[in-house]
């Protein structure tokens, strides 16, 4: 069966098409991303602008056309924090549905964490034991922990790289060097939010495996020496707290425009690396984690796996 998942995030609109059936490894057949930066279209009044709405409609139209060309038999569409946090988010989604015919499902932060956890659990398997998962998005940071496929604890914190960059490091958005005092303020803010979350996540004891997923964590790992994407999905990639500390020191002394020239860095996301490095460091420190393994599967794969599970016996 060919499945399509449209994920409207804070930064990108991502269409993933896979061939899969229950019990089988989902095989990617088509992957398409459109840079939208939807969160940047949310103004000080907490409303998504008309320009952002029009851009969203165009992106959904384009994704639908591609899904049809790829022969998708089932199509799922979801939105995460950008719409979740917009005051007029539901009104916008209603208009998008009327113009495109696509009903975008709003995922709560907790649901996002649970679906990502499912994907990571399936990737590493039961031998991973008690699992702890971190996922930094554009608008939020998702964390989950547990022994089963459904986590015992699933949390979402407003520590996404896009959100933190706009709030603490606006100069990075124009290619400048991050302000050192602002980096310290961001670290303190993240640490304060993470302290009670860490207590909940580690209440049942330390994890056997800590995994991280998302474009942000993959980029941070690459900048600290992990293998490039071209080496394949099965390569063991890790991000250490010590390496992250060195990276934070490096990005605090360089313009984001220069970061865009480094291997493994997407030019459209380079300005978010300083915030991502600080949030990742604060999270690993709060959780007393010295190293995380990078998982190539995340939210979209979790959505696909949950959908396949629901089709059993249908």
Describe this structure in words.
The strands form two sheets. Strands 8-7-6-9-11-10 form a six-stranded mixed beta sheet, with helices on both faces. A five-stranded mixed beta sheet has the order 3-2-1-4-5, sandwiched between helices. It starts with a strand and ends with a helix. It is α/β, with parallel strands linked by helices. It contains eleven helices and eleven strands. α7 crosses α10.
What is the count of helical runs? 11
Helix content: 40-55%
Structural class: alpha/beta
Overall 3D form:
globular
Strand arrangement within the widest β-sheet reads 8-7-6-9-11-10
Average of the residue pLDDT scores = 94
Low-confidence stretches: none
Described by strand count, sense and barrel closure, the largest sheet is: 6 strands, mixed
Strand content: 15-25%
Terminal CA distance reads 13 Å
Rg to the nearest angstrom? 19 Å
The helix-strand sequence is EEEHEHHEHEEEHHEHEHHHEH
Number of strands: 11
Q: Layout of helices and strands, plus pairs?
A:
Elements lengths: L1 E7 L3 E8 L7 E9 L14 H20 L4 E6 L1 H5 L3 H12 L4 E2 L2 H16 L6 E6 L4 E6 L6 E5 L3 H8 L11 H22 L7 E5 L1 H9 L14 E3 H11 L4 H4 L13 H14 L4 E4 L4 H12 L4
Helix pairs in contact: 1-3, 4-11, 5-10, 6-10, 7-10, 8-10
């Amino acid at each position: 069966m060919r499945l399509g998942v449209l994920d409207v995030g804070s930064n990108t609109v991502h269409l993933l098409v896979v061939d899969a059936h229950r019990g089988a490894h989902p095989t990617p057949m088509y992957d398409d991303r459109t840079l939208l930066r939807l969160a940047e279209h949310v103004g000080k009044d907490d409303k998504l602008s008309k320009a952002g709405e029009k851009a969203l409609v165009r992106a959904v139209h384009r994704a639908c056309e591609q899904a049809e060309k790829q022969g998708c038999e089932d199509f799922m569409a979801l939105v995460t924090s950008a719409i979740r946090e917009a005051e007029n988010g539901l009104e916008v989604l209603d208009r998008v549905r009327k113009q495109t015919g696509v009903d975008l499902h709003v995922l709560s932060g907790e649901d996002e964490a649970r679906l990502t956890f499912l994907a990571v659990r399936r990737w590493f398997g039961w031998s991973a034991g008690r699992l702890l998962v971190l996922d930094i998005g554009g608008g939020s940071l998702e964390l989950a922990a547990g022994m089963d496929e459904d986590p015992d604890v699933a949390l979402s914190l407003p520590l996404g790289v896009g959100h933190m960059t706009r709030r603490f490091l606006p100069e990075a958005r124009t290619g400048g060097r991050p302000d050192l005092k602002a980096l310290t303020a961001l670290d303190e803010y993240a640490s304060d939010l993470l302290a009670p979350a860490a207590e909940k996540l580690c209440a049942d004891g330390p994890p056997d495996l800590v995994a991280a997923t998302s474009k942000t964590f993959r980029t941070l790992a690459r900048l600290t020496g992990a293998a490039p994407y071209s080496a394949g999905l099965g390569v063991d990639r890790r991000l250490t707290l010590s390496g992250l500390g060195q990276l934070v020191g490096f990005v605090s002394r360089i313009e984001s425009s220069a970061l865009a020239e480094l291997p493994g860095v997407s030019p459209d996301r380079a300005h978010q690396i300083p915030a991502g490095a600080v949030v990742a460091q604060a999270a690993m420190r709060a959780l007393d984690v010295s190293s995380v393994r990078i998982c190539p599967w995340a939210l979209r794969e979790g959505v696909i796996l949950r959908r396949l599970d629901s089709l059993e016996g249908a």
